[in-house]
Amino acid sequence: MPHCRELKLGDVWRTCNKIRAAIFRMGINLFEYFAPLDPHKNCLISESQFISVINGQLRATIGLSEQEVAELADYFRVPDGRIYYTQLCEVIHDSVPEFTDNAPLVTGLEWEDPMHSNRLSISEERRLNVLITKIASLVNMRKLILRPYFQDYELVSKNTGTVTIAHFARILAHLNILLSADDFSLLVKKYLKDSYTLNYIAFLAAIDKVVNYLNEHNILDLSGDIMSIFPGRILNAELPKLPRPEIGKISGAKLFGKQNIFHPALNDPKKMEHLLTIMSLIQDHVSRNRLRV
């Protein structure tokens, strides 16, 4: 039955742990006890030879009961009835796994955002968007695949999603993506991680996002470059006309008043007449028009 088999395997494993604790404490090598009984190096011995070693020579050291020895022999028995003793020795002596040969299960990105990037000011973000768009147009026009260049370094340095600043600059220079010092500093400021590496995963994701946007909105020409004129690039500054019922019906002078093209300081100053002259003019006007004062 499966349930009984599971219990038996648990008992065998417990017995192996008991043997392992004893021989490690005493510094015993099981191969030295079984090897003389196998002159042909077949890795197999008879059951009687196996019991003579476990329950004979090593009985005082290990201290197994007859039931434990029988279960151990049943577990390592091959179909012809002999005991596969080398397998027992490997289980006992080679029980410590080589962790250096295994790939890490935890990379460090499980609790960190793989698309992590630093926050910039509004003006820097706008400049970065233009820079990423220009790099994306170059990548799309030349049909470049950036990811293998970063992954080759990652295999050597054992990093996960990051490269050094110097290697990032070397990759861009190798691909003939020439940037100014200010543009490169802006990329470093955006994607810097752990003070000395760059998150190339986030950088490539931004490039792919821009390329996909350009393709979806038909902004690229046949060569893959951004079109000089595309929908949305020309700004439409034409304002809608407002209703102006006064046009054509009211004169401009009446609407805006009399307009002078010269500064008032340029006008001639008014002349002041003598008081007697003014009185004589008034008398002449009254007598001529026969006005009553």
Automatic annotation (TrEMBL):
This is Uncharacterized protein.
